[in-house]
Amino acid sequence: MAARKRVAVVGVGTMGSQAAWRLAARGAEVVGFDRFAPGHDRSAAGGETRIFRSAHFEDSRYVPLLKHADALWERLQQETGRELRRLTGCLLMGPVEHHQMATVLQSIAEHDLDHEVLEAEALAKRFPQYLLEDGDAAVLDRRAGFIRPELTVQTAARRAEQLGARIHRYTPVREIIPVGGGVEVSTDSGSERFDAVVVTVGPWVNDLLPGLPWEVDIRRLVSVWYVPTTDAWFGEERPAFIRTAPTHCYGLPSPDGVSVKIGLSRDLHRPAGDPNALDRVVQPEELEIFTELLRRHLPDLHPDPIRLSVYMEGYTESSRPLVGPLPGAGNENVILLAGFSGHGFKLSPAFGDIAADLALDGHTDQPIDFMTTLGRTAA
Ligand SMILES: Cc1cc2nc3c(=O)[nH]c(=O)nc-3n(C[C@H](O)[C@H](O)[C@H](O)COP(=O)(O)OP(=O)(O)OC[C@H]3O[C@@H](n4cnc5c(N)ncnc54)[C@H](O)[C@@H]3O)c2cc1C
After folding, report:
1. Does the CB atom of residue 11 touch ligand 1 within 6 A?
2. CATH number of the domain within which 162 lies
3. How far apart, in whole angstroms, are the C-alpha atoms of residue 348 and residue 200?
């Protein structure tokens, strides 16, 4: 019988908690480290909701991975008895000729996804809270909805612990050093040796691994909660939405049934600066773009926000994540997952499974070759 592998998971956030679950489920001896505690909201996983969707507008090659993630979402819910995800649908809206609307329609056609195309009149009747512009299209992705991020991270980490993982909380990792077929992980209280390490430190990637050959641009994301003035948002159907243009934005009716959360996309976020000193204060002028968005497309939301929160996320130039062992001789047991570019949460159980494949087997059968390949060689 092969010896049980010892694997460290550095950063037990979105990806790390899922990696810990998948590794522990496959019999590895897992030790997690987080600078805070699983489920905290000081990084990329706060704000109560994340969108899950099946139709991908960035690249239809993500759809098979989304299907794999979908099955694992169901499994994690079954194993833990927690409702981590609710399928309420997601409306995708934007100019019909916009490339992201084209990619959505391509995803749907190629993978036979459950959807409805809504004409302007039908949309206005069924979802009067949205204003379309001339030339806009609207597609309802039916296998979509929202995920509860903090609950998910905590639940996946606890499930990993039930399966035997140990997690060191409030224990930042200072250094990762490959040593003769293994890896040494150092914290303020000493060093431990592992067969492999999965590095999932999100916005701290440039701090822990300076000099990476790929840039991960850390941005500061503002989420804003508004209260609707009618009950249109909280009827029987409560889909999330994404609008591709002119201002790329998204929103979700909150599970509390009171407010709607609105966020913007990549180019509209400021650099985060030092992740240890994130500016969590939102200045009034930062709200101007939101107010204009409400006026133009979401007139039912009262423009005085009831809550403002700030998070962080790492973006790569291509918006495709970095997944694989670090390049260079001796680094094959240092598996990095970073740069999820604003769309990693829905896929996180699949990435956790891929991390487990790479740490335990050295390769994965999941279709990730279109992502930034790091030191990975074709299986
Ligand atoms: C506001 C916002 C909205 C989003 N909306 C969506 C959405 O609707 N749908 C979607 O799919 N995706 C969405 N995303 C993207 C998604 O949330 C991210 O891609 C994902 O959470 C990134 O996960 P991560 O594991 O890389 O980072 P994180 O979840 O931040 O995890 C990193 C962890 O590493 C820990 N850490 C850092 N440094 C160290 C160290 N040295 N030692 C030990 N631990 C360390 C941190 O404490 C943290 O727990 C959104 C992101 C944001 C910010």
Report:
1. yes
2. 3.50.50.60
3. 11
